[in-house]
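From the shared-data thread, chain only:
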Amino acid sequence: MTVIVHRPGPPLDRLIEAITFQAGEQLQTSVEKILPSVAANLWVNLNHDEFRSFEGSRVSSVPGTMLAGPRSSASVIEFEQGRAHIGVSFAFGALPSLGLAPAAAADKLVPLELMWGRDGGYLREQLLSAVTPDGMLATMEDALLAYLCGPVTPDQGTVIAARLLSAGMPVTKVAADLGLLPRTLRRRFTAQIGLTPKRFARVQRLQRVVRSLDGREEADWAAVAAAHGYCDQPHLADEFRDLADVTPAEYLRSRIDGPNHLRFSPAS
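Structure, as C-alpha cells:
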C-alpha cells in the first residue's frame, strides 16, 4: 500500500487540509456502508472513470472525478480492487472559495464537471498524464489554485461555530456566543458547510461516539449514552438508526477498517 500526504503551501494551506495519493490497499472489490461525516472531499479514481454508490437495489454511478459533500446519513459505496485515488480534504468553510457549492453537494456525489465545467471533467486526464504520484499531487494543487475565486481564509464565524459544535456545544449557545440570531447562524453555516448546524452537531456527536468505541468489541450502551450527552440509551439507539441505519449492536458487529466503515450486503 502506498499513501503520500501532501500539505499545500500558501494560499491553499488555509483551505486544504491535505491532498493524498493512495494506491494498493484494496485487495478485492467490496461494498461498504460509510457512516455520515461533516467533511467534504474531492476524489479522483485513477483506475476507472467511475464511482459507484448504492441505495437499496438501485446502483448509481458518477464520473471518476467528483465532489463528495458532507453526509447527514450513511451512504453505501463500492471500493474497487486495487483502489488508486487522489483525494482532497477541505477545511471547514473552504468550498465557496474554490468555486464549489457545499449545499449543492450535501448528501451527494457530484461530478466535478458540474461545478468546474470542462476543466473539472478534464482533471482526471491531467492527473494521469503526470504519471508519478508526486506529479499528480502537484497537478492537483495547481488545479485548485486555478479555481481559487474567493477569500483564502474561510468565514471565521462559521469556522468557530463548526469547532464549538464539534466539541458538543448546543446550537443555541453557539449562536448566542457568536452574537447571532439562530436563523442567521443557520443561513450562514449551511451556505458555508452544507449542513444545518443542528444536523452537523448530531453527526459530530455520533462521530465522537464511534471514535470512543474504536477497537472495542462490546459496550455498556447506557454508559456510552450518558458520556456523550444523550438523554438515555433509547435516544442513542434512535440516533444510530436515523443517522447510520443500524442499531448500536449491529454497528459493533459489522464494523471494519476503523470506526466509519461497515460490512454491507444486499440482505443487510
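The two ends are 29 Å apart (CA to CA).
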